[in-house]
Amino acid sequence: MSDASWRPTTAHDALKARADLLRSVRAFFDARGVLEVSTPLLAAHAVSDEHIDAIEVPGHGWLQTSPEYHMKRLLAAGSGPIYQIARAFRDGEAGARHNPEFTLLEWYRPGFDLDALVDECLALLGPLCGAGAERRRFRELFASVTGLDPLTSAAAELAARAEQAGAPAGLSGPQAVDYLMALEVEPALDPALLTVVTDFPGWAAALAQTSEDRDGARVARRFEIYHRGLELANGYQELLDADEQARRFERDNEKRRAAGKRPMTADLYLLAAMRAGLPPCSGVALGLERLQMVLSGAGRIERVWPFPFGRA
Amino acid sequence: MASYSTSEFKSGLKLMLDGDPCSIIENEFVKPGKGQAFNRVKLRNLKTGKVIERTFKSGDSLEGADVLDVTMQYIYSDGEFWHFMDPNTFDQKPAGADAVGDAKQWLKEEDMCEVTLYNGEPLSVSPPNFVELEIVQTDPGLKGDTAGTGGKPATLSTGAVVRVPLFVQEGEVIKVDTRTGEYVGRIKN
């Protein structure tokens, strides 16, 4: 251990900026009549998503990778609009923009469709970031940067394009799209704007509804917001159909097994809540450290998070 | 040798890549929203010194390289090999010109060096940060000169040439920083 490693990696200004940010977020939702809630960080079930790994607490269950399942149970029980400033934990996610423990601002709006929630996100982020916004459909945005259609191009063609850009060989079509999105498309976005990307490919629906776009391709009712090269928020028009949710748990686990990962038990509480009736709603999760990075121009997460993993 | 998953990658970790031992310089975790995560890794090929950039799918693993840094004493050169000795085991290892590289101009018998062993054989040699060597040739300096006028070249006992102040004379022993090749000071006898 080096002599200075007990010290926080943040300047005092960053602590104050975080406190200010939390205060403005709470004021924003207070003014809109959205209720602040708290849900468990430690629970019996965790997310089944192939690309998200929860951290197990032996004998107790799992640290939550997002408060989504519990918040949906509140919604099904009639909570009305709710938000939460929640710690979340994801195994193996560490780097300049990631820390295995981080803070999500997550909120749900019964009665909002995806566009209404995008508007609310921009009402929060626009003044904070002092930036205007643009909306782009995933498919067109991806094609304008890479020259390929993420939905209809052959997997081999997408993989070859990704390899040209430095990707490892043998990627599947969706993996190649992920790679190009992260390493070519995101850096090409206008850093001065809040870019809202909508109509993600159907395979990237996670817990969102899917629909057909105007060309008849299956797309997810999902959006992401980027600013200054960082992904800030990820929102869904939430899937309501419990049977479809059960099928997605199954499919996730098939993918996990194929990838050599341990399957996750389906959260029966969530399925039961959805059967009881999740109100039509949209929800979004926003990375608070990411937002603070953008606001302060910090290039690394430890400039806004005082004790990064490894020194915590 | 153990293998290492991308989640264990960190700078300094020694791995096998394309059959050569490499050392990680930088490891960057890249993840598009909810998608496949990748690790972009910058590595130095320990044989060639070349820097390589590679991207791996997160969760992939690479075999560790049997690479070890040990402190050894330089004992002599037979013209073809430079011989180093482990001061604890008295085990001797010959290092070829490729392994010794630029370090050879700083090697003085009995100095302690960092030797990087790959599968037990010397792969590279780092001289001590500071060495004390005798000047075997330099032009006479001007009288009254003090430090700081750009100096003059001096050839050391190992063959290395460094710039020294004008007042430094042949036969004197000087201290040199091997990382920059710069004169540090005279050693008084």
Short description:
The complex is a heterodimer of chains A (312) and B (189). Chain A has 312 residues and is of the alpha+beta class.
Report the count of strand segments of chain B. 16
Main CATH class of the largest domain in chain B: Mainly Beta
Counting helices, strands and paired strands, the structural category of chain B is mainly beta
Mean pLDDT of chain A: 95
Silhouette of chain B: elongated
Q: Total helix count of chain A?
A: 9
Named at the architecture level, the CATH assignment of the largest domain in chain B is Roll
- The tally of strands of chain A reads 12
How does the major sheet of chain A shape up? 9 strands, mixed
How do the helices and strands line up, and which of them pair or pack?
The complex is a heterodimer of chains A (312) and B (189).
Chain A: H1 12-31, E1 35-36, E2 42-43, E3 55-57, E4 61-63, H2 68-76, E5 82-89, E6 101-110, H3 114-129, E7 133-137, H4 138-146, H5 155-164, H6 173-188, E8 194-201, E9 210-212, E10 218-227, E11 230-237, H7 242-258, H8 268-277, E12 281-287, H9 288-296
Parallel strand pairs in A: 1-5, 7-8
Antiparallel strand pairs in A: 2-4, 3-4, 5-6, 6-12, 8-10, 9-10, 10-11, 11-12
Helix pairs in contact in A: 2-8, 4-6, 5-6, 7-8
Chain B: E1 3-5, E2 14-17, E3 20-30, E4 38-45, E5 51-57, E6 61-63, E7 67-77, E8 82-85, E9 92-95, H1 97-100, E10 112-118, E11 121-126, E12 130-138, E13 152-156, E14 161-164, E15 173-177, E16 182-187
Antiparallel strand pairs in B: 1-6, 2-3, 3-4, 4-5, 7-8, 7-10, 8-9, 10-11, 12-13, 12-15, 13-14, 15-16
Structural account:
The complex is a heterodimer of chains A (312) and B (189). Chain A has 312 residues and is of the alpha+beta class. Chain A has a domain at 12-131 and 240-303: Bira Bifunctional Protein, Domain 2 (BirA Bifunctional Protein, domain 2, 2-Layer Sandwich). Chain A has helices at 12-31, 68-76, 114-129, 138-146, 155-164, 173-188, 242-258, 268-277, 288-296, and strands at 35-36, 42-43, 55-57, 61-63, 82-89, 101-110, 133-137, 194-201, 210-212, 218-227, 230-237, 281-287. In chain A, the strands form 2 sheets. In chain A, strands 1, 5, 6, 7, 8, 9, 10, 11 and 12 form a 9-stranded mixed β-sheet that branches. The model of chain A has no long low-confidence stretch (mean pLDDT 95). In chain B, a hairpin with a 4-residue loop joins β15 (173-177) and β16. Chain B is elongated. The A-B interface holds A 49, 51-52, 91-98, 166-168, 171, 174-175, 177-179, 181-183, 186, 204, 206, 224, 231, 234, 259-260 and B 6-7, 27-38, 40, 53-60.
